[in-house]
C-alpha cells in the first residue's frame, strides 16, 4: 500500500498536496465542500501588513490552457487575519502555512514579527506577486534585493520559513541559493508569470494594471524545469507548483525533485480537485509499485 | 457531478434554454457553475438558475464565449457538470414587487415570480421578446420593451415596495438612482467574472458601502443601498 506521507521542513504531511495561496482562501470556503483536513497542507491567502482592497477593473481572464489574474493581494491584513481568520484556520488538521507579502521591507518584518507567536506551522514569504505596484515581485527579481528581505525576516521570524519565488527572477537558481544562504528552511516555486492581454475591440489592455499573473497548465513545463534546476542546486526542500492539474503532474514534479507540491488554478476547474488528486496519486503509486514518494523524488 | 441534458435550444435574443435532469434544492437567485468539457476552457461558467422542478433544473444563458458556445451545442442525453448551488439568493419579501430584467438578466427573476406574491415583470430585450408567456402565468402584469426603448422608461418605481433587478449595470444603476428618491427597496443580482465560485479567490470582488464583497459568496444578490455600481 502506497504511503503518501512526506516531510516538509520537519513537518509530517499526510500527503504532498498543499493548496496554493490565493486559490483557497483560508480553507473554510472549500471546507464547506469537502474535508480539507485530508490535504497535506494549505497556504493561506497572501497577507500584507495592512489590509488591501486589491486592484480595480477585471481581475480574471482566460487564455489557452491558462488564466490570468490581477487580484492585487486583496486581504484583511495581518492583524485582521489574526483577529478574524486564524481561529478557524488553526483548527484545520493539516500543515497550516501563512503566506506573507509586503509593500516594503518593514511590512515583511513587522508582519513576520506579529505572526511568529501565532498558532500555525510555516510562513511562506511571498516575494513574487506580480500584481502589486510596490513590493511583491519587485523583491523577487534581483537576488541581492531578495537577500536583504530574507535576511531581515529570518532575524525576526521564529517560524519555519519558506520563500515563494517568482518565475520572473533574473536567475531563479541563484535566487534559491540566496534564500538558502540567508536561512530559509525551504523554497516554493513558481508563482505566476507576468503576462499581458489586449482587448482589441476596445483597443486597450484587458487589465487596469496592464500586466497580470499567468497560471494554469500553460506554465507547467516551464515551472517543472525551474523546479528541476533549483532542486539540483539547493539542499533545502523545494515545494513545486505551476499548472498541476492531476496526479501524473504531481509525479512529474516529485521526480524533478520537489518534496511536495501546491495546487492552484486546478481548484477552479474542480472544487474537489485536492481530494481527487490524493486518491489518484494513491492509485497511481499502487499501480506502479511505488511505496513511497522518496523512491522517485529527484530521480531525473 | 454529471447530469443528463433533457432539452437545450435557442429561445431568442441570443439566449438559450437548457433543462437538466436531477434532484436539486436551490433558492431563488442562486447559481451553479456549469461545464460541459474536461479541461479547456479552464473555468466553469457561473449561470443563474431559471427554474427548479421536482426532477429538473433549467438555466437561461447567453452565448458570449467558448464555454457558453460549447454548452449551446449540447443535445438530449449529453452530460453536463454542475457544481452548486452557490451564492445567497434573493431575500423573501412581502409587498408589491417589480421584477426588472434586461436580456439574460431575466433568468433569476422567474423563480422569484413563482415563489413570491404580487409581482409585476418588466422585461427588456435587444431584438426579440422572450419568455413572456411563462412570466405571464406567474405575474400580475408583464411589461416589455425592446431596442432603444429602455425598460426603465416605463417603470414607475413609486408603485412598488420592492424591486428585484438583474441585467446590464447601467440599467441597475438607473433603477437604484430612481429608487433612491422613494421608499422602494431594491435587490440587485450582480454578474461578475468568477473563478472559484465559492468565495476563495477574490476575482469577483464588488464594491459595497461596507467594503469589498465577494459577488459569488456574499452575493450575487445585494440590497441596493449597500452596493456601489
UniProtKB/TrEMBL annotation, chain A:
Record localization: Cytoplasm
Report the enzyme's class at the first EC level.
oxidoreductase
Keywords noted in UniProt: Cytoplasm, Flavoprotein, FMN, Oxidoreductase, Pyrimidine biosynthesis
The protein's annotated catalytic reaction(s) are:
(S)-dihydroorotate + A = orotate + AH2; (S)-dihydroorotate + NAD(+) = orotate + NADH + H(+)
- Name one matching Pfam family: DHO_dh
Q: Which cofactor does it need?
A: FMN
Source domain of life: Bacteria
Annotated residues that bind substrate are located at: 45, 69-73, 126, 191-192
Specify which residues bind FMN according to the UniProt entry for this protein. 21, 45-46, 99, 126, 164, 190, 216, 242-243, 264-265
Molecular function terms, GO-annotated:
dihydroorotate dehydrogenase (NAD+) activity
Q: Where is the Dihydroorotate dehydrogenase catalytic domain?
A: 4-285
Q: Which residues form the signal peptide?
A: none
Q: Which InterPro entries match?
A: Aldolase_TIM, DHO_dehydrogenase, DHOD_1B, Dihydroorotate_DH_1, Dihydroorotate_DH_1_2, Dihydroorotate_DH_cat, Dihydroorotate_DH_I
Q: In which pathway does it act?
A: Pyrimidine metabolism; UMP biosynthesis via de novo pathway; orotate from (S)-dihydroorotate (NAD(+) route): step 1/1
Which residues constitute the catalytic centre? Answer: 129
Gene3D superfamilies with a match to the protein in the record? Aldolase class I
What does the note accompanying the cofactor annotation read? Binds 1 FMN per subunit.
Q: What is its EC number?
A: 1.3.-.-
Q: Record's NCBIfam families?
A: PRK07259.1, pyrD_sub1_fam
Role of this protein:
Catalyzes the conversion of dihydroorotate to orotate with NAD(+) as electron acceptor.
Task: Describe the family membership recorded for this protein in Swiss-Prot or TrEMBL.
Answer: Belongs to the dihydroorotate dehydrogenase family. Type 1 subfamily.
Protein's name in the database: Dihydroorotate dehydrogenase
Organism (species): Peptostreptococcus equinus
Automatic annotation (TrEMBL), chain B:
- Gene3D superfamilies named in the record: Dihydroorotate dehydrogenase, electron transfer subunit, Nucleotide-binding domain of ferredoxin-NADP reductase (FNR) module, Translation factors
InterPro entries this protein is in?
Answer: Cyt_c3_hydrogenase_gsu, Dihydroorotate_DH_ele_sf, Dihydroorotate_DH_Fe-S-bd, FAD-bd_FR_type, FNR_nucleotide-bd, PyrK_electron_transfer, Riboflavin_synthase-like_b-brl
This protein is called Dihydroorotate dehydrogenase electron transfer subunit
User: Which parts of the chain are coiled coil?
Assistant: none
**Cofactors (names):** [2Fe-2S] cluster
Pfam families to which the protein is assigned, alphabetical: DHODB_Fe-S_bind (PF10418)
| Keywords of the record | 2Fe-2S, Electron transport, FAD, Flavoprotein, Iron, Iron-sulfur, Metal-binding, Transport
Question: Which species is this record about?
Answer: Peptostreptococcus equinus
What residue stretches are annotated with the FAD-binding FR-type domain?
1-92
What family name appears in the similarity comment?
Belongs to the PyrK family.
